[in-house]
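Morning. Coffee machine broken again, so started the prediction first thing and wrote up yesterday's gels while waiting. Chain of 300 residues, entered below exactly as on the submission form.
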Amino acid sequence: MIELYRPIKERFGADCLFDRPASDFTTYRAGGPMDVVVKPASREDLAWLTAFCLNNAIAYLTLGAGSNILVSDKGLKGVCALTLKLDKIVIAGGALTAEAGALWDNVVKAAVEAGLAGLEKTSGIPGTVGGAVFMNAGAFGQETFDCIESLEVMNRSGSALVLKKSDVSYAYRKVEGLEGLTILSAVFRLPAGDGKALAADRACVLGKRAEKQPLDLPSAGSVFKRPSGDFASRLIDEAGLKGLRVGDARVSEKHAGFIVNGGKATASDIYGLIKKVRAEVKAKTGVVLELEQILLGEFE
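Came back before lunch.
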């Protein structure tokens, strides 16, 4: 196996890691071994890696900060590219361009400091620009796609292309039209706003997150999508599930919409708890909760 990946190691050196646990790269701090983890530092490196995997029939996945995902304890075969080194943010006029590996909250902070409105209520969302675009992340009435003008993507052969907002279909926590593509960057067209008011809004949102969310423990954000006309956290709380445990995974007592890792939870613990919560909520309220987080690898 190592021989197959030797050209990757020769190109990336210390930025090519073998057989490392997903717990090292995901916010749940859980998950099994990943064959190869690569940290490209340029688009050229990313294009080379993408094409190499295609030409050698190697399974290929791109991740950012590892939030909103759960990797199986069995791990992942093939190559995983982490985009965190591709993190440039550029503001020119009312346009903000951010690379896929830029942390989303850094983008929001830059926009607010530049007096640009439209992203401030998404302050504190974990993850990167690539992840936010991929799932149309949002909070407090604002979503990633509200202000997107265009995005640059890379296909499996390593070629880049630009998509307009109208080229993809998006809805609540869902985007279609990006299948088989790696997000490289996004351009946001943002209206001018009052700097002090924007900063106050951002501070308020961050304060609410700190007050209501279990930010002191490993998690991957909201586990379930918001049901129509309701909140997953309310339904879970109503079903009496706060504090429910499987192994070292538990439903947060602070925010029922979060599952937290007490320190030693496996991916199987977390997945088992997800299934228990869904079953209990359905039995007690009749509502079938839809998973917001993405499962990677084998779970059944």
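The mean pLDDT is 96. Going to sketch it on the whiteboard this afternoon.
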